[in-house]
Specification:
- The chain is mostly helical.
- It has one domain.
- The chain is built from 15 helices and no strands.
- It is globular.
- The two termini are 29 Å apart.
- Its main location: membrane.
- It holds the Pfam family EamA.
Length: 330
Amino acid sequence: MGSTQRNVTAALTAALLWAFAFPAPAAVKPASELLLVTGRYSLFGLCGLYVLCRGRRQLRLMPMRRILFGLYIGFVGYFVFYICVSYSATMGSGFITAVIVGSSPITIAVAGNFAEKRMSWSELVAPVLLILSGLTLLSAVDFIHEGPSDRAHDSLLGILLAIMAMLTWSYFVVRNAQSQRTWETKPDPKIWAALVAMGAGGASMVLLPFAIATTPEETFSPYPLFKIIAWCVFLGVIGSWWGTYIWVKAAQGIPVPLVGPLLATETIFGAIMSLPAERRTPTWTEVGGALFILAGIAVYMAFDVKNSRSRGDGAGAEQKPDASDVPAAT
């Protein structure tokens, strides 16, 4: 029991570290979103490069197609994903972005059900309808309070980017899980995590000079510069790399029914932390939309836990594919 409590605490710690990604774009202003993304993942990629250098013997044993695939899903699942999150959070709201991205378990379930049916399609109807109701309500927030305006249109574009982030992350999780199951021999988790990190880091290193060149000059004043560097170090090294390590270690001892809810806390933490960064409180419309989405996730998890028990899945079978099969973090 004590071991389980320690693992749950560790998993919550990892979720909290990952959640800082949502308030970060507002917190680093006037730095650009691109500078935050490229700075964060350049450091994340350097962590991956260090691991690959130490494990070069294992890396040489991997087929080139697997190495390229690892780099590819790292680019899509991390770099492209966080580009969408960052611009969504600043054009709309980090709170709304976190809530929408938090609905990804439903899109993952729908996509995964086509490849490997885990539950009846009828069981997904209620969660999907609740999620869609929540997204509709969140999309109408600024139109309800302000009417058609540039701010409202920016917010709507921010929501579309958040949906893109949700779909991108879902694609990453499903493709990664499918590939791991089809390979006869799984790659070493540390080496695979490092490849994924390099996929995100490689693109970031290429674009970092452009991000610096297009960043507003006031960013390079002492305090804004310190702020963006501190956030990049925290997100890239502490959040992405160490948060992943903490999760992977903890996930090995977490009972199946707890894994989904623990992962869901990441976006809950992110939504809560985004509000102080934006210096506001949520509107009732936002609260209503968030509750619809949380209800949809809860209904889905209830069905998933029931199906897991009926199949007699072993502990850890329902771990997030990028955290059990492959160390990863948002």
